[in-house]
Amino acid sequence: MKLPEKFIAETDSFFARHNEVPSEGFYESFDKIPLHGVRLSRTKTVPSEHEALLKQIDPAFTGIDPVEWCDGGYYLSEDTDDTRKTGRNPLYHAGVFYPQEPSAMLPAQVLSAKPGEIVLDMCAAPGGKACRLGEDLKGKGLLVANEINYERSKALLRNIERSGITNSVILNENPDNIAKRLPGFFDKILIDAPCSGEGMFRRDRSACASYEKYGPDSIVPIQKTILEAADKCLREGGEIVYSTCTFCEEEDELMISSFMESHPSYKIIAHPEINGITHNSNGTMRIWPHLNRGDGHFCAHLVKGEKTESNREPLSYVRSGKPLKASDRRGFDLAREFLSEILTDEGLSEITRVPFTNHAGGVFLIDFDENLFKGLKVCKTGLYIGDSRLTSSGKSVFAPSNSIALALTRDMVKPDRYLALSFDDPRLERYLKGETIQVMEEDNVTGNGTVVVGVENAPLGLGKIGGTQVKNMYPKAWRLI
To answer: Which of 162, 417, 446, 467 is the most exposed place for a label (fewest CB within 10 A)?
Structure first.
């Protein structure tokens, strides 16, 4: 492929100054087929299921081929035309897997969020790294996923919901505004920084044109601003992972060294235990397309001062102390009735371990103080259960959100309220298209009312049974066309 002349000149200069990095085969790598991968959800799957799931995702599957630097990450075959690897796959809609370029799996693995921590993904869309961080938290602590571009924040919200993450806040904010509102608040911050995108050249041919227009000169100042905001947001002893998908030294090693010169308390955490990548002498990491099995990527793990555990009290929801309105109380009662209809006693106890909250007219489960984010543009907070509505006759009814289904596991649902469709069941595609489907005797679903529709053991959405028909409740915006 034809590469930008400026890129070639700067890359030649890099290799001339860094004899430790072999240059042979680098330019030829841009003409090779890019690698494709998926990351299987570790909250919706167990390792013993992975081989069977990969066969359903990849028709050309010849054996498990793990991404060395990511738990649950796997390479796919080179055939990229099959729709089972794309957003038409029901397992994708259920949040079982997330299509992700293998190199992009490294930063979240390096940051390694722990249950109970407060974690910020500063540049989160479309959400692959944020979803991995949310998995690591295991429902404890808080994930704040931010995207400054409003349109891209919609994709972020959809992916967070699909993953079943309940302890999250999605922001559409400028990093400086977050720093002003939440100074020293976060234990860990991921910055997958906007960059010149050189590592994407072979995967996205339009990246070359974008590079010509928005090269390093226009991007570097933005990266510096984001790092400064992250420093203000991070507590002492906290950690930052900074990553890019570019080879440009000014955006990578030099960006980190410049930041550390002006913030001398920071140190680099090296990761010699991570295999399959190129380790730099200063402890930062690179993925080279001619040396490693992925597109171009850079990653640095920083700690602010001495690495310490947070001494902050666990976040807890703070009620205003005001008495509940009658409409709020009614909405909460209807939400509980709905959940009791479909969940086992254990499932109900698990999903309602945090309190109901009225937010923007809907019923949410939120286990932190919403006032923390007052003054910031919030796209979503907590787990949206649904809202109560009045019928034309004046009766209050509950309209559930599909996001609740994706936050469940099969064993949380009453057996006769779970409609399990096999991966090859033709009703599955019809359900994802928004069509009415039939319930059969062998489905073992009895009575009328709400059911959770799933692809095998993975909940997918909701439906309403009447007789032998299941009225489709899958959101219109998510349906296949």
So the answer is: 467
